[in-house]
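User: Predict the structure for this protein chain, please.
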Amino acid sequence: MQILSHRGFWLKPEEKNKRDAFIRSFDAGMGTETDLRDICGKIVISHDMPKGDEISFEEVLQLMNGRNLPLALNIKADGQAEAIKALLKKYNHTNYFCFDMSIPDMVVQIKSSLNVFGGKSDILAQIVLFDEVSGIWLDSFYSDWFSASDIDELINQGKKVCIVSADLHQRDTKKQWDIIKSCSSFENDTLLLCTDYPLKAKEFFHDKN
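Assistant: Here is the predicted structure, written as structure tokens:
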């Protein structure tokens, strides 16, 4: 399983989606989740509406410095598909997926041949365009609702699965992480976990291996 740091490997909340958090994540060899918006013709890293002083997506790819580590790109605004595709191509970055876009923009991104993950959760049971997406962003807003067999079934259908860690919804992780660890596909790179606590996750899932 691959572990992704949520908004970079931050040590203080104010570091989320900031340069230091990305450097720390990349230097640790971690996958990284982040948020893309656009302002004045430029794609920037911002969870909320951008003000213009944010680090750009291109700067993040420059910090990656050729390391083709996993990137999970949370699409916060429509209309970025071609610009995202061009930047990924410019820096030869192939290990990524886009998710959480609107359905109309999802159609555009799939037509643009971007790697797109569809969503499934305790409030969204039906995966939109299942046959067209390369993976599933598996979320649990209110409860640890899915089983190990649910995860394995998606992977057996040829999809990658990135699980949203319970800590992102301010819940204890033990039950969910035990479920993940019991998956038959647990050691497969097609399984990913996005968490605010990547070192804790690494210790729980990998250190004994």
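Residues 2-205 form a domain with the TIM Barrel fold (CATH 3.20.20.190).
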